[in-house]
Amino acid sequence: MNFSGRFTRVLKRMIVVGLMFLCALAFTGPVQAEEGLNTHEVKQGDTLYKIGMKYGVSVQQIQAMNDMYGTMIYPGQELILPVTLEEWEEDLLARLVEAEAKGESYAGKVAVATVVLNRVESPLFPDSLYGVIYQSRQFEPVDNGHINDPASHTSRQAVEEALSFQGFDGGSLFFYNPDKVSSAYHNDREVTVVIGNHVFSK
């Protein structure tokens, strides 16, 4: 085989390997989340308005997420951003809310969704919605299979409201029904709100 033929075969092999690598990147599952996905490092010329427009969130939410009372920011500052979800993630969260808060008020459904979003932001939990929901032994509907039941319109609305509510809640990371669960682990935590049968805490 001449040099030209060998070169062509090597080139084709390199292209195939490269395509396989790109496909592997493209089809990585949702379990892994990018580091720093919900933060923004302020650049020269940034304003809260520009940052809000870039990520599709309000200035008020950015301020609430970062305990800010004004609009002054500076280059190099790391801002925490509200969690934004893709369509499949909203559906997953709505199904969890439907199963966890069935029979609870609309406010209770919003609070359950908010707890999950707060966990995505918290260093104590996985940094993706999928990771938070499927973390071992955290949510009963995942264990009993009810996570796969379809969500109601009300649960979907509750998720939308929870997304807009980020930063304005009490930072709840846990919820439980004291009639069903009795644990010192929950009793030692600061209660943020009680809605219906659920006690929310952080």
How is this structure best described in words?
This protein has nine helices and five strands. The protein is mostly helical. It folds into two domains: 39-80, LysM domain (Membrane-bound Lytic Murein Transglycosylase D, Chain A), CATH 3.10.350.10; 87-201, Arc Repressor Mutant, subunit A (Orthogonal Bundle). A three-stranded antiparallel sheet has the order 3-5-4, covered by helices on one side. Strands 1-2 form a two-stranded antiparallel ribbon. α5 packs across α8 (153-165). Residues 14-36 have low confidence and may be disordered. Residues 1-33 form the signal peptide. It comes from Halobacillus yeomjeoni. Keywords: Hydrolase, Signal. Residues 38-81 form the LysM domain.
Q: CATH top level of the largest domain?
A: Mainly Alpha
Number of strands: 5
- Just name the CATH architecture of the largest domain: Orthogonal Bundle
Estimated structural class:
mainly alpha
Count of discrete alpha- or pi-helical segments spanning 4 or more residues:
9
Give the strand order of the largest sheet, numbering strands 1, 2, ... along the chain: 3-5-4
CATH topology of the largest domain: Arc Repressor Mutant, subunit A
How many whole angstroms does the radius of gyration measure?
22 Å
* Biggest beta sheet attributes: 3 strands, antiparallel
Please tell me the overall pLDDT. 79
Fraction of residues in helix: 40-55%
Pfam families: Hydrolase_2, LysM
Protein name: Cell wall hydrolase
InterPro entries: Cell_wall_hydrolase_SleB, LysM, LysM_dom_sf, SleB_dom1
Domain LysM: 38-81
